[in-house]
Specification:
The complex is a heterodimer of chains A (364) and B (373). Chain A has 364 residues and is an alpha/beta fold. Chain A has 10 helices and 17 strands. In chain A, helix 1 packs across helix 8 and helix 5 runs antiparallel to helix 9. By secondary structure, chain B is of the alpha/beta class. In chain B, helix 4 links the parallel strand 5 and strand 6. Classes of the chains: A alpha/beta (364), B alpha/beta (373).
Chain lengths: 364, 373
Amino acid sequence: MNDSSPKRTVLVGCGAVAGKLYRKPLQELQRQGLLRVVGLVDSKLEHAEALRSKLRSGSVFDDLNLALRSQRPDLTLILSPPHLHRDQALLALKHRSHVLCEKPMAPSSDGCAEMVRLARENDRVLAVGMIRHFFPAFAQLKTFFDAGKLGEICSFCYREGRVFDWEVQTSAIFTRQASGGSGLLLDIGSHALDYLLWLFGDLNVVSYADDAYEGVEGNVVLELTSPACPGRMQLSWDSPLRCELRVVGTRGEAILRVDQLDKLAIKTNGDFEEVAVDHRYPADVRFPSRKTITPKLYTESIYCQLIQVLRAIELAEAPAVDGQQGQACISLIEAARRCARPLDMPWLDPYQEAMHQSLHWTKA
Amino acid sequence: MSGPIAVIGAGGFVGTRLVESLVLEGSSDIRAVVRAYRSLAGLSRFGSAVDWRIADAENPAALVQALQGAGTAVNLTTGTPASILRSTRTILEACVAAKVPRLIHLSSAVVFGEVASSVIDDDSPPLMRHWMPYARAKAAAERWLREHLPTSPCQVVVLRPGIVWGVRSPHTLQAVKALREKNAYLAGRGDGVFNSIYIDNLVAAILACCAHQGAVRGFYNVADQETVSWRDFYAAFAPSCDYDMGQMPSVSIERFPWSLRAVIEYVQLLPAVNGFYHRLKTSLPDTLKSRLKALLADGYNYGHTASTYNRKPVVDREVWHLQRVRYKLPTAKFCKNFSFTPPVTFEDGVRRTVAWMEFVGYESLSKQLVTAS
């Protein structure tokens, strides 16, 4: 058992993310006495009520302000659609609650900056939910990288795409930002860019192409540069890409399967060989940690992320991704959009290819 | 037909390409009907150019509402074998209730099995005792439509494509993976007919049905113009997959080469087990499903292409039967009634598909080396 009292926690957004990904880890943390859900906020009260009945804890609200005033949470989890993140996080920080905000932190870097400033002024933890920091293979590749196992890095290629199958409960993610939506680049792109930033420290956008007309992009290709090397990132919502990060170094090559938690292979000479992934994360809120785990499931990674946030609050450790890091990721997305051009689609016939170019949103 | 084209099942492989083509050809009257919000992902880039509605193909009230005012409905839904007949009925009844003048229903050439006779034509009855539940369900849907087609106030056009191949085709991706991983095989000498249609030719056929002004109700086979064998098909993709066709193993064409996996799939397809399997699949918790998936997953090919040829490949029963197809289905009826010529040749389809394969990360070794350098 932990010595301190359970952290009073409010959940904002009780849709698919909360129900499918956070529910089990929260149940486990409640069981361990590390946190207690005291409020569930959703504009659709039936969603909040459904989750409350599973968590067997907390009161339901459709007004975040009311929830924060009445419940006085230590921690607020922002699990709502992205266009709501900024205002909800600012409100929670004003009420002096620590915040874990799901990615993307906010649709604009200005919004992120406001969140960072308020968190600093109120001396609160502002963590961004970038779950891949808690995928053991991802962390292990970072360790290899830092140890120079691949030698000097020459190039990288990140691909992630499949036919979209996440059970979203609204169309928000598929609409343009002006209508409160997001798109592929904010959805998967924020994960991918955050991870590449973690690996390489800094990135610049050389070029960016997407396939959006009046709507949001379903395919994107970015050419990037890092201080170490050039690279490429490709994402898709409608095509089954080879989901891999391939890094080529002077002493070897690594392939990280970005659709898995624990699959990493290294080639130093000969063929690729899978690495035994055993990166461990703290599973308690003690210093030093007495219990560690290697997550095997997505929900176990969420559990580790929540533990890390509790450690940030309780032990003043840094969260895996803080507000400034979250902001850096959004700034990159903005830089990409500033130099957008239509994606090349050589599989279309010449007439359709020409129409595709002329309908692109940058031509509007 | 005046009024929008309502594409039911617009979020799928054919639906997405149909909608994309309509947008790129300048159509402003497109309605995408999808079962769930997640199916909008592939359509999200079109924004307000596409009017979308959420309606389950088995929910009559929602479907009638979604189809109101449509000039033509196109049924591209897939679903489980158990749901195919139900959704076919619901969609036609909804079209009638919503006064949609024309319904284009996509059946499949699989209803004719291995096309064992040259006299099978567009109006031949489908096989009702096919070994595959999907084929039986498609046949049952055709039989039901055949009964209702003559009297329905909605003009029903049933299109019967073979394997839909090309850009974004799951079938083509599977074939290319088999080549790259050196697991491909031919039944006999590979002379079986690759009864198929390139995705853009199918889309063009659907659009021809939408545009036709006359009375066109009936059953139609649709296919590419060329007659292509399975060997031709694999050979067309072999260079981009670093595959030497001279190394391709041949398996018996007379007797199915059983394996443990084939036995498991056979049991899965038994009617009682199949229904239970689909129910179980939807009711299992995600965590358990991901554990099982990881457990059953094939080894991952980190090197992208295998270096050695698998001399004893595991044979997929469906692919084996498809490789035994003896005759190309006649398409003269469709071509004549709709003044139709498939716009994309086999050669051009292969070129486009290879371009797409490279885009999704399946480039040949020589291209990888150029990129790396």
